[in-house]
Specification:
The structure holds 2 protein chains of 2 kinds.
Chain A: H1 18-38, H2 42-59, H3 67-99, H4 106-121, H5 124-135, H6 139-163, H7 167-175, H8 180-211, H9 222-231, H10 235-263
Chain B: E1 14-24, E2 27-37, E3 41-46, H1 53-60, E4 68-73, E5 76-77, H2 83-91, E6 93-96, H3 108-113, H4 122-126, H5 132-144, H6 160-173, E7 178-182, H7 190-206, E8 210-214, H8 218-224, E9 227-232, E10 235-240, H9 247-254
Parallel strand pairs in B: 3-8, 3-9, 6-7, 7-8
Antiparallel strand pairs in B: 1-2, 1-4, 4-5, 9-10
Helix pairs in contact in B: 5-6, 6-7
The chains are: A mainly alpha, B alpha/beta.
Pfam family, one (chain A): BPD_transp_1
Organism (chain A): Marinomonas transparens
Protein name (chain A): Phosphonate ABC transporter, permease protein PhnE
């Protein structure tokens, strides 16, 4: 057995690392530089907070008198989110399966992974602008945006969940002579189903949130109402819309908790 | 090694000729396997780990594709079968695994029923449309492996021995013409191991089919097998009745002798 060399004193293993200290120093210097470059001074911040104060003052009390407009936008957002979640999840199920490297040969999984990565590349706002320009104003553009966003997010999670399953169970079902679809149904799905439910409810939640945003660029839903209220300085109506969005998101949260409990 | 005997007659359950498998080119793990299974009953395949026993069984039901050779089963060459034909042949081969390989999130009875999937269309599988006859058979099988009261428990709540019983029930559910068992007892305690071998023996005689069992416990193999096949370094070095296997054979199969007491 090798003996420790006791002739020299061993070093402290937690010794200072100069290159890491150097990196921290660079980050600190850049932060200070950025503050100066942006012209962020106390005076500017105080000035800004004053404006915020006026805005808050004009927001309260919230004005629900145009509740029909509000409810119309809300209903549209909800419908967009539900439709987009349905198609997004169904498409992601297949795309996720085709992207899983343990289920598919490379010539299938690599292009599908590329497509999913493409869907993730752009922020929903950019995708929404693209769809508004290509299919026109309105909820259709919003739905397409949310479908793309859903695929970019959960198809990847689905694929990763499938890649983590135990192949022993798959082998056993294959050995019974089952066809490909039956193997997926009886050995892959049982292993990933509860995680899929989790991802899907999360995506529904996320789509609800995004469905109130895509309207800002003209893709339907409550966001459009919000944007025009801002532009007309109807800040009390803006407050009413924001409160409605909070209620919608909390309702979504409640819904996904219920779904998760049912499928656990 | 490859012999020129005519392949497969009516009494043949399985005939293997010149079976080779190499995972990396030029480094074969099976170096030409020949044998015939012509009678029902347990055939024990013994040999040290890494000698290709698992590969041999997996080549038979084509979970692994052999490199060369012929596998004659049900009057067809299994080594060349593809798609529909391969799946139809797999239906007739029940397999039992070392680590049971149950679908953990499904219940015990659902796991037994998966043995019928090969006989169902994808559409029937999607709707879980198992015939009443299959469901009755599944419960009878579960009863005969002694797990009737566990039917609706999830498979991952069972003990090792219980899981292996479910694994056997699933394989028998296929109504197979042959059973393959890959080290079915090596994850189990000695008493449970004997019970599992008894079950394999029971179904083998009840269904009048052979059961090829990979096993490294020579004593257990001798006790249950009608015939033993000894493998060493990818070739068969003994093939005959259990009484005929001598310490010299075992030395040749496993190497060394200090373990022979």
């Amino acid at each position: 057995m090798a003996r420790l060399d006791t002739s020299s004193t061993p070093e402290n293993p937690f010794k200072a690392n100069w290159s890491i200290r150097g990196i921290w120093l660079v980050v600190a210097i850049y932060l200070v530089y950025s503050f100066n470059a942006m012209g962020l001074s106390w005076a500017r911040i105080e000035d800004g907070l004053g404006h915020a104060n006026t805005l808050l003052g004009r927001m309260f009390p919230p004005n629900f008198s145009r509740w029909e407009l509000l409810l119309g936008g809300l209903a549209e957002s909800l419908e967009m989110a539900v439709i987009a979640s349905f198609f997004g999840i169904v498409l992601s199920l297949f795309l996720g399966l085709f992207a899983a490297r343990n289920m598919m040969p490379n010539w299938v999984s690599i292009p599908v992974r590329g497509f999913i990565a493409l869907c993730r590349t752009f922020h929903p706002v950019i995708i929404a602008i693209l769809f508004v320009k290509s299919v026109g104003f309105g909820p259709l553009a919003g739905i397409l945006t949310l479908v793309v966003a859903s695929i970019g997010f959960i198809a990847k999670l689905f694929a990763e969940a499938i890649e983590e399953i135990s192949l022993k169970q798959v082998e056993a079902i294959r050995a019974t002579g089952a066809g490909f679809a039956s193997v997926i149904l009886f050995s892959v799905m049982p292993q990933v189903f509860s995680r899929f439910i989790g991802f899907s409810t999360y995506q529904l939640d996320s789509n609800l949130r995004n469905s109130t945003m895509v309207g800002i660029v003209g893709a339907g839903g409550l966001g459009g109402t919000l944007f025009s209220a801002f532009q007309r300085f109807d800040y009390d109506f803006v407050a009413a819309i924001l409160i409605t969005i909070i209620a919608l998101i909390m309702f979504g949260e409640l819904l996904s908790n219920i779904v998760r409990r049912i499928f656990r | 090694m490859s012999s020129t005997q005519p392949l497969a007659n009516k009494d043949s359950y399985l005939a293997i000729r010149g079976l080779q498998k190499e995972y990396t080119a030029g480094n074969p793990i099976l170096k030409g396997i020949d044998f015939d299974i012509t009678e029902p009953g347990i055939v024990a395949i013994i040999g040290p780990s890494g000698t290709g026993k698992s590969t041999l069984l997996r080549c038979i039901n084509r979970l692994i594709d052999p490199t060369a050779g012929e596998i004659r089963f049900d009057d067809q060459d299994l080594s060349q079968a593809k798609g529909q034909q391969l799946r139809a042949l797999r239906c007739k081969i029940g397999m039992v695994f070392q680590e049971y390989n149950l679908v953990e999130r499904l219940t015990v009875i659902e796991n037994v029923l998966t043995g019928r999937l090969g006989y169902m269309s994808a559409w029937q599988a999607w709707r879980r449309n198992f015939s009443q006859q299959d469901i009755n058979t599944a419960f009878e099988l579960l009863n005969s492996v002694g797990l009737a009261e566990h039917a609706n428990k999830r498979a991952d709540s069972l003990s090792g021995g219980q899981r292996q019983r479910v694994g056997i029930a699933r394989a028998v559910m296929q109504n197979p013409r042959i059973l393959l068992a890959d080290e079915p007892t090596s994850s189990l305690d000695p008493k449970t191991a004997v019970e599992i071998m008894e079950l394999l023996e029971l179904f083998s005689s009840e269904k009048d089919i052979p059961a090829l069992v990979n096993i490294h416990d020579v004593k257990l193999a001798r006790r249950f097998a009608k015939r033993m096949i000894g493998m060493s370094e990818g070739v068969i070095v003994y093939d005959g009745p259990p009484e005929g296997i001598t310490d010299d054979h075992l030395k040749q199969i496993y190497g060394g002798e200090s373990w022979l007491v």
